[in-house]
Design goal:
The structure is a homodimer.
Chain A: H1 13-23, E1 27-28, H2 31-36, E2 51-53, H3 58-71, E3 75-78, E4 95-98, E5 105-109, E6 114-118, H4 123-130, E7 135-136, H5 147-152, H6 160-163, H7 166-169, E8 170-176, E9 182-186, H8 198-202, E10 211-218, E11 220-221, E12 225-232, H9 236-248, E13 255-259, H10 261-271, E14 280-287, H11 289-305, E15 309-314, H12 317-328, H13 330-335, E16 342-349, H14 355-368, E17 375-378, E18 383-390, H15 395-414, H16 433-437, H17 440-451
Parallel strand pairs in A: 2-4, 3-4
Antiparallel strand pairs in A: 1-2, 5-6, 6-10, 7-11, 8-9, 8-10, 12-14, 12-15, 13-14, 13-17, 16-18, 17-18
Helix pairs in contact in A: 1-3, 9-11, 9-14, 14-15
Chain lengths: 465, 465
């Protein structure tokens, strides 16, 4: 596997001693541990930190930040390692802060429908804690990411069309700043107009403005009724229009996932299914039993008008699970199309009225470059993913994928969209930030300099300095 | 009326000439015009700017900002003048930028359900533009505020429980920075993880970080069915519990407004109605006809269990209007309780589980201080308003109101809430910011200094410097 090795000073011995003074044996310089914390799940090359620390409290993170700051050494927070744009690579060396040891449920306020967790807790662990409460946390990016990582990247996913992204579901944060100062942002009130929205600023800042150690989350009531449906369409345009019409009709759809023909083929092969190899939409509806029935009926009409076939409904949990298995397995199904190859996932987001056009142009480009790249869309948000399946031994494949990616980003921005809807910038998309935001990037830089004057927080990410 | 006169240098003649060069006759130093732009609708004393300018484009605002910056003169944006916490007072003199001339609909994208407006447009003007499109903009703070002002204060209101605050409904902004640079933030995509959330940072920044000149807004489909209901309860606790149970049951209520006994008495007298003088909740339900019927039935059961009486339903538009008239008139009804007196509106927000306790303690405090102050609550958000009706000739009344306000804020913060849910900080609540945010206020100051190093943007507001 490729490794980035940039020139940087070795970790000062004195700092290592100080870190051991703070964390005892929870400091590692072992090559394997460092390598493990030098990449996420992306195609970006590994860039190992010089040391990895495993704090168990905000105070320990603050002490680590104070020590690193005194020595001028970079700090890179590490969640569950599911990053897709090179967020955790130690591009300039430094100390990786592995948050896995901070996974406590700090508080659960059932009647207020909120909770507070430590940043290392993964969303599935939280799901476990919420069992039996009648509540759930809706943001589902697919991977079992840490809630800190999801906050830091402004994650979203399959249910965003109904329940919002992390931005709409984080009430407040505890953050360790560059010099080790601890602040809390937001609160437990459902809304506030008291001062600048620091919570919103740290969401999506990818560890470059501070290290998130605790998160207050908004929870939702588990709906009485849930129904799922799968239907396939003759064209991608019809499939997109089915989702757009559903939203415009005001159906509060909980999920509307679109898989293209290439992805459906992969899913069929992987899970031994026989769905039509055509653009397919997986719907999910949440509400009272009656509301779900009504939503389903409305969408049945919409998709029939658009010529959908093979319409399949499921209201029982096991049937829904079977139906959604195809969607959930799509990543591994895609990789299985070409054993020995690696996946490179990229995403963009456009106004929903431009989604079909953007997807079709991108698919044409993928074909023209003779690449294998299934497309999956959170269609209700105007967001889609391309998963390039790349042979690491064919140097030109990566180049061709990069060209397709660059053109896709350019296309999205030209349509009023964004270079990333949910994966984040990391260092993989840093080059596109100015194209998207223009002068506003200077404002971002001014904020970065104000909060991290020495540039020690996850350097080389998000903001081109 | 009281006027603040702080010592500050007079407006340089050269700047006045430059402003006239940019805006011709759209520059005024007339005493009446300056006084008109020296206060909102609050009790805070008037502080007139030295001049008022009336730009018609972002470019003109930028030119004004450049000129003021060169002369070191403060800039204060002015929307519709409905501010409640002294946002527009020219505490250090300077130039007020009246945005009323910037009220164009820049674009309307029906199929994407978004639009872009100039910041001076009021929400009712936008309502007019949307007529016949099947779309509406949901944020309703009561007053016919400008959308720029609503963005700058992070406004919310009666429908926030269902549709969110300005934060959830603003997609992007055009902002003129301190030195006159123009940036655009956000975009038309429904979500983005590309860089720091500048849109969120400017929302609620009250003109202290930049001057908002255009706003991209998310629109919503007008629901097929709307129903309203009014019901009164024996105790405030029962009324609050009715709303909390409704939300916990998952009913997507569109409005849940609670008026206390004092407010209901005022409303009865003002509009010649005969509602019981008891804590009363006004509900509104949005959805399909069937969904609205189901929601109404569920809430009927909930409120009956809590002993609600005088339950009144309305599905026809004219009946709903009659029902809601009482709520809409509540401000003027309150003022009419004591002719010749003025109103001072304040608001706080707490986790919904603490709302009843916080309201009851506050009402006891109002009684102990022998004040007249109706209470109205956006109960679904945990947010409530106290409107002190104050005799300007009785010096002690204002002091007593200030004590009640200070204790209410302290109480809210102790409960995990906020010193203002929707009115904003202005300079009226600046003293409470550190109590609420602690160390985080230093981070806000760092951001203020980074974006406005000379402190010329609405100085003396939001952040205590």
């Amino acid at each position: 596997m490729a490794t980035i090795t940039k020139d940087h000073a070795p970790l000062p011995e004195a700092l290592l001693r100080e870190l051991e003074g703070i964390l005892d044996d929870r400091v590692s310089v072992a090559v394997a541990i460092r390598a493990q914390h030098g990449e996420g799940e992306s195609f970006h090359p590994n860039a190992p930190p010089d040391a990895v620390v495993f704090p168990r409290s905000t105070e320990e993170v603050a002490a680590v930040a104070r020590a690193c700051s005194a020595h001028g050494v970079p700090l890179i927070p590490f969640g569950a390692g599911t990053s897709l744009e090179g967020h955790v690579q130690a591009l300039h060396g430094g100390v990786s802060i592995a948050m896995s040891g901070m996974n406590r449920l700090v508080e659960l306020n059932g009647s207020d429908m909120d909770c507070r967790v430590e940043a290392g807790m993964t969303r599935k662990t939280l799901e476990g804690h919420l069992k039996g409460t009648g509540l759930f946390f809706p943001v589902d990016p697919g991977a079992d990411a840490s809630l800190g990582g999801m906050t830091a990247t402004g994650a979203s996913g399959t249910t965003t069309v109904r329940y919002g992204t992390m931005r709409e579901n984080v009430l407040g944060l505890t953050v360790v700043l560059a010099g080790g100062t601890v602040i809390t942002t937001g609160g437990r009130a459902r809304k506030s107009s008291a001062g600048y929205d620091l919570t919103g600023l740290f969401i999506g800042s990818e560890g470059t403005l501070g290290i998130i150690t605790e998160i207050a989350l908004r929870l939702h009531g588990i709906p009485e009724g849930i129904a799922a449906a799968v239907c396939s369409f003759a064209t991608l345009e019809d499939a997109v229009n089915a989702v757009i019409t559903t939203i415009q009709t005001g159906v509060p759809v909980a999920r509307a996932e679109l898989l293209d023909d290439v992805q459906m083929d992969a899913v069929n092969r992987f899970s031994d299914l026989d769905y039509p190899v055509r653009p397919t939409v997986f719907f999910e509806f949440h509400g009272t039993t009656a509301a779900v029935r009504e939503q389903s009926a409305t969408v049945s009409e919409i998709v029939s008008d658009l010529g959908a076939t093979d319409f399949e409904w499921a209201t029982k949990a096991e049937d829904r699970t079977r139906l959604w298995k195809a969607r959930h397995d799509s990543y591994y199904a895609s990789l299985a199309l070409r054993p020995g190859c690696r996946g490179w996932a990229t995403d963009i987001c456009v106004p929903i009225g431009r989604l079909a056009e953007c997807m079709l142009d991108t698919k044409a480009d993928i074909e023209a470059e003779e690449l294998l790249a299934p497309v999956v869309s959170h269609a209700g948000d105007g967001n889609f993913h391309v998963l390039f399946i790349i042979d690491p031994d064919d140097a030109t494949e990566m180049e061709r994928a990069e060209r397709v990616n660059a053109r896709m980003v350019k296309r999205a921005i030209a349509m009023g969209g964004t270079c990333t809807g949910e994966h984040g910038v990391g260092y993989g998309k840093i080059r596109y930030l100015e194209a998207e935001h223009g002068e506003a990037v200077h404002t971002m830089k001014a904020i970065k300099r104000a909060l991290d004057p020495d540039g020690l927080l996850n350097p080389g990410k998000v903001v081109p300095l």
